[in-house]
Amino acid sequence: MEKSEPHGEHRPRPLTPALSRRERENRSPTVPRFRPLSRTDCHPFPLSLREWAGVRGSEANSCRLVARPGSHPQAGRRAEAAPTFILPTVARCLVAAVALGIGLVHASAQVLVEKFPYATMTSLPPFTGNDANLAAQATKILSSDLDRSGWFKIVAPGSGEINIVGVANRGGGGFTLNVQIFSRGSGAGGSSGRQVYSGQFSGSGEGQIRQKVHELADDIVAKVAKQKGIAQTRIAFISKRTGNKEVYVMDYDGYNVVQLTRDGTISARPRWSSDRSRIAYLSYKSKWPDAYVIEVGSGRRTRVAAYPGINTGPAFSPSGNQLAIVLSKDGNPELYVIDANGGNPRRLTRTPKGAEASPCWSPDGSKIVFSYDGFGLPSICVMGADGGNMTRLTGSFFTEPDWSPTGNLIACVGRVGGGKFQVFTFDPASPSNTLKQQTSDGGDCQDPTWAPDGRHIVFSKTSGYRSQLYVLDVLTGSATNLGLNLSDCVEPAWSK
User: Fold this and answer.
1) Which domain holds residue 196?
2) Is residue 50 classed exposed, middle or buried when 0-12, 13-18 and 19+ CB atoms within 10 A define those classes?
3) Is 101 within a domain?
4) Cβ(120)–Cβ(225) under 8 Å?
5) What CATH number has the domain bearing residue 152?
6) Confidence category of residue 52, pLDDT binned at 50, 70, 90
């Protein structure tokens, strides 16, 4: 069900944007070809790396990161060590991770990632209970969730610093998962050690098994590791599975993929609301680049910006009440803030020599970071959400910024040697001293967005004319392919 709002309603439009190489090649036949436009007419849409460089991919290998050699520092810890003594080490490592992330890595060099004692060695024997299939599913999903969190390393039963004892039973038309965690002791199964966790989760049907195990995993991460879990989060992205670029959503681990839009044309840059109930995105559904908000549960959609020219990059504020967006209704693409329903547009920038793109809010909603090309090539800039002076944070060529939920880092994409693009991070308080290349590859790594834990980044990687989604752990440098069997998966966005 679609609801069209009057904000910026127009016909005909005097201005239309040029499409990127990727969008020209994949354009819906319903979208007409436009005459060439000058810079004063309209800036290229949507001003991402693909538009700036005409990136199409390469025959390079998948992203890889090189770690300095050395055994895991927790491998030889004493058997009686309990999680209460492990957690201060984890906290110190987080500080060290930020402190050691300084210095610009040369574009042609591979990234050296320090090994940190970040993970607790964890034994997870198979669940027991009255249903072998349920027990096997619970064991597999929980093991994957804890390992993906980065705070736990699953090792052989009985050899971990902590031991998980799980029981999965069916009964009464549902199922129950009971889990206890003990520090390593001398008894069988580790249960003679000190108990550090106990939890019970129940579900009513087969379809809830993954959901309940994800809840269990996040509860363990929160109470044992004292960190924010990501197992219940979702990722939105763009795919050409149907032949058109549509918005899809999935669980954080690549399961339960659902097609959200069926616009039959080009959709781009989905962004979640903080409550995970809505997604803002750009679509050519009306044959023009308009901004929409769609409710994930019901599919109900509202067009929130339909001004002449481009209406691109809508991004929810942390409160969910506003959208940062780039509009060219007055000629040049400028940064605006509008209400979440599309009303009350407020112009923040006045930059006739350049154009803004890819806005993103700070976690507290006080600032907006974005890319700006007025210095010749795109750079990352920041300004107050209420306007004011614009501050340049990086040199050129950097774009597609995304602010970490913890506030201490911004992820972005930078061009390196050979014209390829890689993921970088930096501390906005000291960008020149903390700019760090996080991926190193012959392909193109783009579209980074943070997970709510401030540790993981999802990004798209294009190689051999094929784009896939990866998850990067910025503490270890490991990048994992989500393994989606879909065509050209790009522009991921992690729910916060």
Assistant:
1) 76-91+118-223
2) buried
3) no
4) yes
5) 3.40.50.10070
6) very low
Q: What percent of the chain has pLDDT over 70?
A: 75
How many CA atoms, within 13 angstroms, populate the side-chain half-sphere of residue 367?
A: 18
DSSP for 378-408 reads -EEEEEETTEEEEEE---SSEEEEEE-TTSS
Q: What does the pLDDT look like over 328-377, one tens digit per residue?
A: 999 999 999 999 999 999 999 999 889 999 999 999 999 999 999 999 99
Q: Could you give the CA distance from residue 266 to residue 23 in angstroms, rounded to a whole number?
A: 8
**In 5-77, which ranges are E strands?**
66-67
Q: Which residues contact 151 (CB under 8 A, 6 or more apart)?
A: 90, 118, 119, 120, 221, 225, 227
Please report where in the chains the tokens 């499409």 appear, as a residue. Answer: 19
User: Do residues 262 and 485 make contact, with C-beta atoms less than 8 angstroms apart?
Assistant: no
Q: How confident is the model at residue 58 (pLDDT cuts 50, 70, 90)?
A: very low
Residues 288 and 426 reside in one and the same domain: yes
- Which residues share a beta bridge with 163? 123, 182
Of 429, 435, 380, the C-alpha closest to 408 is: 429
Length of the chain: 496
pLDDT one-digit tens code per residue, 151-180: 999 999 888 999 999 999 999 889 999 999
| CA distances (Å), origin 55, targets 88, 397, 423 | 44, 14, 15
For residue 455, the model assigns a pLDDT of 97
Phi, psi of 84 (to 5 degrees): -65, -25
CATH code, domain with 391: 2.120.10.30
Strand partners, 370: 381
CA distances from 229 to 48, 358, 360 (A): 30, 27, 22
| CB under 8 A, 24+ apart: contacts of 100-106 | 101/409, 101/425, 101/427, 101/434, 101/436, 102/433, 102/434, 102/436, 103/433, 103/434, 103/435, 103/436, 104/435, 104/436, 104/437, 105/436, 105/437, 105/440
* 353 domain residue, yes or no: yes
Residues 146 and 269 in one domain: no
Q: Report if residue 98 sits inside a domain.
A: no
Provide the pLDDT for residue 7: 59
Query: Cβ contacts of residue 359 below 8 Å, gap of 6+?
Result: 313, 315, 324, 325, 326, 335, 368, 369, 370
Which of 199, 223, 247 terminates a domain? The answer is 223
pLDDT at 383 over 60: yes
What pLDDT score does 417 carry?
A: 86
The two structure tokens encoding residue 429:
């308080």
